[in-house]
Amino acid sequence: MNILLWIIQVILALLFLFAGVSKFMMPAEEMAQNMPAFLSVNFIYFIGVCEILGAFGLVLPWALKIKPGLTPLAASLLFIVMIGAVVVSAVGSPLMSVFPAFVALLCGFVAWGRKK
């Protein structure tokens, strides 16, 4: 179980790190074209910061044995972020919300598995 959790944590960390950094690499005008009108660019930047910090929180506390309780907290908070992504994706097309829902389930599994 520990190995499975580590594999999921690393994959999720890489995914969230990529997603967070890409929000800062993309020009604001291009981001505004690809998102719903009710989301501001500053909110997208905030989500990017949350994703980057969450990526580090998924791996570092548990790996370094420094405040390992932060790992399930990071997974739980990323679960909440992904639920928001499911809702925003479902506004455009319900089929687009499948991937964020799967990632949310993986975050929930990590939070549950590391809560012990």
Could you give the distance between the termini?
12 Å
Beta content comes to under 5%
Order of helices and strands: HHHHH
Overall number of strands: 0
Q: How many structural domains?
A: 1
Structural class: mainly alpha
User: Compute the gyration radius: what is it?
Assistant: 15 Å
- Number of helical segments with 4 or more residues: 5
The biggest sheet amounts to: none
Mean pLDDT: 93
Outline the structure in words.
The protein is mainly alpha-helical. The chain is built from five helices and no strands. The chain has one domain. The chain is globular.
Summarize the structure.
The protein is mostly helical and 116 residues long.
Structural topology:
Layout: H1 2-25, H2 28-33, H3 41-64, H4 70-92, H5 98-113
Please supply descriptive tags for the structure shown above.
single chain, 116 residues, mainly alpha, 5 helices, globular
